[in-house]
TrEMBL record, chains A, B:
Pfam families: TetR_C_11, TetR_N. GO terms for molecular function: DNA-binding transcription factor activity; transcription cis-regulatory region binding. This is TetR/AcrR family transcriptional regulator. InterPro entries: Homeodomain-like_sf, HTH-type_TetR-like_transc_reg, HTH_TetR, Tet_transcr_reg_TetR-rel_C_sf, TetR_C. Keywords: DNA-binding, Transcription, Transcription regulation. Residues 34-53 bind DNA. It comes from the Bacteria. Residues 11-71 form the HTH tetR-type domain. Gene3D superfamilies: Homeodomain-like, Tetracycline Repressor, domain 2.
Length: 200, 200
């Protein structure tokens, strides 16, 4: 009502910083982005940013943690192949185009900064895997997967192809390529793998 | 015979630079390593290094290209599961421990530097995939895999789990974890994936 509202002003500053970080990362790339540049674009002081975060990697993680909710959505239509095609495609979209994707920059930066990597696991990866596991349990309940399914194998096989292609710049998979991979992974999980030879 | 031999001296300097790069990368990490530090340790001038390479990433790639031959060896005992367990383990060993592995640093740096990434593909990834494809063809000839096997799917599924765990610091797979994944992948490739529903 005309009185200053520091809480709301602070919230506006936070939002401006996070949005400016995404914009700058996309425009200039993570390496060229600076805290100074973010502050200038957001109309706040560097001190304000450093009050909340200790590095540009941490600001970017915070900016993406909200948006990455999209990729942590696991559709459950009762058709595991279709749902995992849609889910893995949403991850590919987050990472595309690789050259300017803020999420791809965050993944790369995490490999150079163990503290940031730990924060990424806590904020993004662990909640993602928890929702993934829920979707797999639902597939077991629907008898689309055996109860003995190895969830660690499942997450590595569904998402491994994306990150294998990402780290070597081999081109992220398109829809048909993802579908072929998802169909192979579902077959693998149903089979439980080729059997070990009998002992002795 | 007592006369100076510039070719041999130059070769010794090259070797000293490449070995110093691996040592420094392992000791200090890629981020803290400098061309100046490499020159000092190798007993050459910075100018000598810049005559051959344009960045510390390029020096590291050259230093690893020789050693990575080890991981590009594809045993062919006639037992695909056993051979791929050994092969993927040799890749895990190159990347271990992740915090100080020069190869893991190179993979991370490639994601920030498109020119280095292209050089990594030419020097390391393309020859690796060519040998991988040969091993898969041999498995087809031995009727361990169907002739219709999709080699792009195969390479993504065999190596994806390693790189998925690498990029998120989830801990590289140990021997039993690799074997479980390899057994799943071989089952997937034999099945060709769960079938698409008939059109119409």
């Amino acid at each position: 009502m005309g009185t200053p509202d520091p809480v709301r002003r602070s919230e506006r500053a936070r939002t401006a910083v996070l949005e400016s970080t995404i914009d700058l990362c996309r425009a200039d790339g993570f390496a060229r982005m600076t805290i100074e540049g973010i502050a200038e674009r957001a109309g706040v002081s560097k001190k304000t940013i450093y009050r909340w975060w200790s590095s540009k990697g941490e600001v970017l993680l915070e900016a993406l943690a909200g948006r990455a909710e999209i990729a942590a959505a696991f559709p459950d239509s009762g058709d595991l192949v279709r749902d995992m095609c849609a889910q893995t495609m949403s991850v590919v979209e987050l990472l595309s185009p690789q050259e300017t994707s803020p999420y791809a920059s965050l993944v790369a930066e995490g490999q150079r900064d163990p503290a940031l990597s730990a924060a990424i696991r806590t904020r993004l990866v662990d909640p993602f895997i928890a929702r993934f596991d829920e979707r797999m349990h639902s597939a077991v309940a629907a008898r689309e997967l055996p109860a003995s399914v190895d969830l660690g194998v499942a997450v590595d096989l569904f998402y491994g192809p994306i990150y294998h292609r990402l780290v070597f710049g081999l081109g992220l998979p398109d829809g048909p390529q993802l579908e072929t991979r998802v169909r192979h992974v579902v077959a693998a999980l149903r089979s439980g793998g080729v059997p070990r030879p009998p002992a002795g």
